[in-house]
């Protein structure tokens, strides 16, 4: 009797224990399942570790070498072209005729003015005869009148002679286009029978004064690199495909304003667009082997003296005028650690085309910086790492 009661009691306890274990197992299963399900729904982020160091500034650009000595010769009077005497690539000497113009109208005007001068001289002779007659007759009134008329005629002749001299000089200067120096014809735009269409009729260049390379760079970069007029800079000149490029030392001859370019969200990572002022660098090079038209490039690189944390521009976000980044913060949880997006405001920063440097006290070594997220983030949002 007692034995049966004891066996029944053990069976009941075993059943209770089994049910308890099943309940606990189910509870743990559903807890982990719900956490797993929740983690799948969290924003997925891609991260990178910030690198300690300075920001690297790079000045790069390329272009075509053009002769430093070049003249764009325009049609001086807008007359029609009568004859083009040169072709592109032709060597010319100083004073050589390049283009002749139809100066017929100007020549006819000059002939008319010469005829007018002849008439004035004949009229002057008539007044001189009247002056002689007044002198002989002793007519004081007529004498004074003819004397004044004589002076007036002489002044008219003087004015007419200067006018003719000016027309002759203009005709000699504008009836033909002359080479201003020894060089090569780079361009011919003059067309026989037509007047100029806004372009220079001819372009003459000479390599005697060296060559110029023009490249456009961001204005702020000029200041960060300390680039200045007179500074020497290495220029790499490309050659034929079967020959290696060679390097020359050039000199920055001029730094000029060159408008601005749009600095877009793909570059700065802030989702905004900014106008960045541009500067045009004119770099002078000289070498006997240069002919003009070669492809040339420059590259200047310098690391900033200031140090901090360097991260990609795409990690930096903007809210109005404020900038910030999101870093990953790991927090302890009852069922494991969780990751949280923590907003870090940026008060000061330095930027180049691909990276941003922030102060060293904003991060710790090993901190993960969020580059992109599957959903918009707020400070304190739980996240899952990619």
Automatic annotation (TrEMBL):
Membrane spanning stretches: 15-33
Protein name: HlyD secretion family protein
Organism annotation: Paenibacillus macerans (Bacillus macerans)
A GO-annotated cellular component: efflux pump complex
Alphabetical keyword list: Membrane, Transmembrane, Transmembrane helix
Keyword Transmembrane helix listed: yes
PANTHER family noted in UniProt: HLYD FAMILY OF SECRETION PROTEINS (PTHR30469:SF15), MULTIDRUG RESISTANCE PROTEIN MDTA (PTHR30469)
Record's keyword annotation contains Transmembrane helix: yes
Top-level taxon in the UniProt lineage: Bacteria
Annotated GO MF terms: efflux transmembrane transporter activity
């Amino acid at each position: 009797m007692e034995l049966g009661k004891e066996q029944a009691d053990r069976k009941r306890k075993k059943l209770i224990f089994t049910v308890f274990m099943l309940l606990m197992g189910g509870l743990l299963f559903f807890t982990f399942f719900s956490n797993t399900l929740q983690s799948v729904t969290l924003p997925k982020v891609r991260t990178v570790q910030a690198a300690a160091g300075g920001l690297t500034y790079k000045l790069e650009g390329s272009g075509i070498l053009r002769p430093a000595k070049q003249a764009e010769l325009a049609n001086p009077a807008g007359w029609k072209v009568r004859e083009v005497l040169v072709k592109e690539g032709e060597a010319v000497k100083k004073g050589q005729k390049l283009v002749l113009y139809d100066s017929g109208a100007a020549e006819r005007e000059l002939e008319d003015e010469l005829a007018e001068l002849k008439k004035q001289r004949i009229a002057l002779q008539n007044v001189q005869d009247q002056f002689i007659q007044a002198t002989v007759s002793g007519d004081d009134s007529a004498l004074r009148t003819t004397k004044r008329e004589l002076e007036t005629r002489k002044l008219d002749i003087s004015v007419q002679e200067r006018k003719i001299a000016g027309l002759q000089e203009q005709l000699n200067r504008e009836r033909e286009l002359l080479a201003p120096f020894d060089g090569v014809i780079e361009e011919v735009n003059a067309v026989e029978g037509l007047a100029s269409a806004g372009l220079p009729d001819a372009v003459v260049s000479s390599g005697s004064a060296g060559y110029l390379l023009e490249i456009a760079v961001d204005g702020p970069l000029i200041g960060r690199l300390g680039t200045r007029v007179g500074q020497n800079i290495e220029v790499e000149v490309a050659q034929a495909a079967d020959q290696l490029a060679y390097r020359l030392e050039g000199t920055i001859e001029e730094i000029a304003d060159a408008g601005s370019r749009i600095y877009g969200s793909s570059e700065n990572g802030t989702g905004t667009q900014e106008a960045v002022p541009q500067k045009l660098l004119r770099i002078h090079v000289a070498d006997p082997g240069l002919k003009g038209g070669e492809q040339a490039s420059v590259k200047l690189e310098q690391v900033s003296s200031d140090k901090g944390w360097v991260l990609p521009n795409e990690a930096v976000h903007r809210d109005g005028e404020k900038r910030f980044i999101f870093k990953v913060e790991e927090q302890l949880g009852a069922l494991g650690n969780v990751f949280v997006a923590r907003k870090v405001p940026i008060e000061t920063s330095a930027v180049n085309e691909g990276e941003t440097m922030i102060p060293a006290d904003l991060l710790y070594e090993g901190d993960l910086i969020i580059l992109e997220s599957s959903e918009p983030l707020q400070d304190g949002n739980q996240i899952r790492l990619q």
